[in-house]
Specification:
two-stranded antiparallel ribbon; mainly beta; Trefoil (Acidic Fibroblast Growth Factor, subunit A); 8-stranded antiparallel β-sheet
């Protein structure tokens, strides 16, 4: 029989080791396989796909229509659901983000950190990533959701699925393209894009 003090310690340790779930705007946990809109907490349009030069794969940006919900996404944690069951999307855990949409591009709509853009000195978030298969070759395809106050969240690029890999760890924010005015998602040191998740 386990002493009460030891049992209390074990339960507290397990509780501390399990990240909390991410919640939607209705207060329900986010689940795998369910579609959600990612909406900026400060207002404005949701997230969508666009190409800066009509080239594939498309980039990820905020819609320029303030009332637009953007395109829905699904989340696929690296740990998987197991036995085909949905699981919670947890804070600060590796996951794929995928637009639930079709494009003219042959590439997937899974989010991926693109190559460094030397012209503007930014890392931009694009698509064309690989879903699943966590490891060194897919490190750029994994993002996390971090907490940002009560009911608010941020998106982070800081993959931990590859032990020993040297990776960037930065928040995802907005970069306004001077040529087009597009609000493109990019890694930032000057403040994240604070978001909420609304079930589609």
């Amino acid at each position: 029989m386990i002493p009460a003090l030891v049992l209390t310690f074990l339960l507290a340790t397990l509780s501390a080791a399990t990240p909390p779930p991410v919640f939607d705007t209705d207060g329900h946990p986010l689940y795998t396989g369910v579609q959600y809109h990612i909406l900026p907490a400060a207002g404005g349009g949701g997230l969508t796909l666009a190409s800066r030069s009509a080239a594939c794969p498309f980039g990820v940006l905020q819609s320029d229509h303030p009332a637009s919900l953007g395109l829905p996404v699904t989340f696929s944690p690296a740990l998987g659901g197991g036995h085909g069951r949905s699981i919670d999307v947890l804070v600060a855990t590796d996951l794929n983000i995928e637009f639930a949409a079709m494009t003219i591009c042959e590439q997937s709509t899974v989010w991926k950190l693109g190559a460094f853009d030397h012209a503007v000195e930014r890392w931009f978030v694009g698509t064309g990533g690989v879903k699943g298969s966590p490891g060194r070759s897919t490190a750029r395809n994994w993002f996390k959701i971090g907490k940002w106050g009560q009911g608010l969240f941020k998106i982070v690029f800081c993959p931990s699925i590859c032990k020993g890999c040297h990776v960037l760890c930065k928040d995802v924010g907005i970069f306004v393209d001077g040529d087009t005015g597009n609000r493109r998602l990019a890694l930032t040191d000057s403040g994240p894009l604070v978001v909420q998740f609304r079930k589609a």
